[in-house]
Amino acid sequence: MRAQFVLSEIGVGLRRNLTMTFAVIVSVALSLGLFGASLLMRDQVSTMKGYWYDKVNVSIFFCNKNDADSGANCAKGAATQQQKNDIKAELNRLPLVQNVQYESSDQAYKHYKEQFGDTPVAGLVTPDQLPESFRVKLKDPTKFAVIKSAFSERPGVQEVQDQRDTVEPLFNLLNGMNIAALVVMGLMLVVALMLIVNTVRVSAFSRRRETGIMRLVGASSFYIQMPFILEAAIAGLLGAAFACVLIVGGKYVLVNNWLAKKIQVINFIGWDSVAAVLPLVLLIGLLMPALAAFFALRKYLKV
């Protein structure tokens, strides 16, 4: 009988405050949708870093005959074969080096043509203008500074370049977008909490006569508060469920059917990452409104 009464009170409360309940559902859905998307974006950035950092190399470019005026290391002209052999031998002795590959000027020009194709830029460079290099694969890509400090001042070395510099701006952009999404999510959560508190306040005021009667007949504080808390929890859970639909839909439409086809060089996160986020979204959607209602009732419902 008590359970039936509580359920009937929940139904009455939801019907009386239908507009505000709908606003709570929408705000919770949007905020938790952004929350889930932020978590997935963080996983995506981590996956991309692991993928690309594993592929980038440290390049040691050697002086060629056109670099005599480019610095002290190249003052004597092109790097000699002995200088190249000495550097390769030292690289092979370093424990942090996984392998070393030699790239000739002709190979560098071939890669250059593949990159720029038939664009006007492709005709501005000739093979003799591109330096020879060692492509050094590190066991730990973050140890680039060790290679740079050891070889950047060596005679015959034009430059030591870390290819991570090419992809780092992309990761910084993605991290910035993630932070922006978290900020918007925080604002939406504040709006959702304010709506929940206001909805509970209005609901408690509209049913002050019923709660007064329940208090007179000896109902406990928990029993009086329970319908209000469950109303907020149900609204939050519906919002969280809608947020899950948005997350799954975004993964299927935006990632799988659009980005994955447009950008095939990126290894996008799978459904396992989405499945790990959804329970957390549902749990927050259930507990956050319930706790907000509980603390709001202590102020607005004198029992």
Explain what this protein looks like in three dimensions:
Part of the ABC transporter FtsEX involved in cellular division. With about 300 residues, the chain is α+β, with helices and mostly antiparallel strands. It folds into 2 domains: about 1-50 and about 165-300, no CATH class; about 55-160, 2-Layer Sandwich (Alpha-Beta Plaits), CATH 3.30.70. It is about 70% helix and about 10% strand. It is built from 9 helices and 4 strands. The chain has helices at about 1-15, 20-55, 80-95, 105-115, 145-150, 165-205, 210-215, 220-260, 270-300; strands at about 60, 95-105, 135-140, 155-160. It has a 4-stranded antiparallel beta sheet. Helix 8 (about 220-260) packs antiparallel against helix 9. The longest helix is centred in the middle third of the chain and has 43 residues, at about 165-205. The two termini are about 20 Å apart. The mean pLDDT is about 75.
